[in-house]
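Subject: two folds for Thursday's group meeting

Dear M.,

Sorry for the delay on this. The cluster queue was jammed most of the week, so I only got both jobs back this morning. I'm pasting them in the order they finished. Each block is the input sequence followed by the predicted structure tokens. Could you check whether the formatting survives your parser before we put anything on slides? The first protein is the one we discussed after the seminar.
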Amino acid sequence: MPNPYFWTFELIVAGLFGLCARHAWLRGPAALWQLVAGALFGVLLELATLRQLNAYRYGLFTVMVLDVPLAIGVAWGAIIYSVRLLSDVTGLPGWARPLLDGLLALNIDLAMDAVAIRLGMWDWGMGLERQYFGVPWANFWAWFWVVASFSAGLRLALRWRQRAAPWLAPLAAVLIGLAGVLGTNALITFVVPRPLYEATVALTLAAALAVVAGQRPRFEAARAGPPAFWVPFVSHLYFLAAGLIAGIFQAVPFLLLVSVLMLVIALGLHRGVWRPWLARRPT
């Protein structure tokens, strides 16, 4: 019998990707191609990482691309598209936006990964107690670099002053992103000494946060477009609900605290979207 958490996740991802696709199409075919390239990148990075590190494995989802669920790659595409929409309306300089993109993606993963492994979606092969409740610290390093690498590659390639740039830039972003992901995977796994492993992850993410905060971003979320809000919001709601229904939060209450905190942060960043909704409600 299919795992209900798996196919529910796949349906939600399909819906969110459809929302992103509709938004991208209204912006033009080039934007839609960027979204599709992000999903292609998501599938390829998962296939490559599984073979590079052999650090985790996925459960059996409805649609698989070899040993990677198609929904995972599609989810990467939706996440990358949505965080870029938000970072583009913050007033940050172009070089800082990929850093924010990576941090915004981490907002989702901090609430998701430890719940997902308890639902059987994937398995890190280290039990449920080690490091971050069964999730290696390097996973958060990887999430940051996955999104930041693709975002930086796309933004850089779009600066080409050629007519074909809008169509070639997403392909360049896929290649640059894969190089960034595999390179940073190798760095944290094979180069950084084990005693410095946790500190390297923490300092890298803290430095990115400090750099972004130092640029004083203005989160004008109302201008970002619907996917910027709905992708993180629905993701948080799904894993919050799944954690409650499956009894995960009863067993590990700290994960409930983290899930709620990440949802609150996401709502705070997008308050320009939902505050007008509340203001329009009749008193």
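Second protein, same layout:
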Amino acid sequence: MPAAEIFIQATETDPDVIARGAVQEAHERLMSGLAELTTAQPVTQGAEPWSAELVDFCLHEVRRYLVTADRNLYAPASEDDETRLLVEALRVGAAALNAQIDEIAAAGPVDVARLGMMITAALDAQLQIEESVLLPALAGLPGVDPSSLAADLRAYLAGEQVEQPTVIDVRRIARGGRHPRVFARYARLAPGEAFILVNSHDPKPLRREFEAIHAGAFSWDYLRAGPDEWHVRIGRVASDA
């Protein structure tokens, strides 16, 4: 088999490649939708239907993506020292985009065209940072499962409900996939939320990983301590703000 074919087969199942593909797919859909709505129609007195479509796309598609990206891409990187500032910058960019979306929703047809182009440019810059900087950083963070986060991203964008189990019984998960599954679930927690981990032994190694990665940001409460089962409530600490 040619080396090129072997390489293609290997990358098709690589979690980082899967994650990048999902994010690129979402990015392309957003940018192509905005490009069609901002460049295909002239601004005339009869432009109200077109401008309404652009506003609707920004209010629903763009805004839903910003919410989804924050929960599934930004949150997992928000507590790591190497990526915290990057996430803060991305969240500032997202806040600015949301402000522009509020502005376009209240604008007339001529201003909608102008604001639509501004949103397109700002979103393009935001997505390029996600793709070229955030995704490689996520791939290098311990406890982050890129393919799981990508699957959640696709589900959210498709309007599907992502499973958010309140109990994770790791005894039913193959070794090697247990800790990534737990960390992926933790990444989707909002401040103050929690889930219960069930294991056949005291998950001390997992707790040490949490302390190394999410020090001060998680809670760990034993609900049952052996002898055959351990139940631990793992939560994301609520913000003081």
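Two things I noticed about the second structure. Residues 5-10, 43-47 have pLDDT under 50 and may be disordered. The chain has two domains: 3-157, 167-236.

Cheers,
T.
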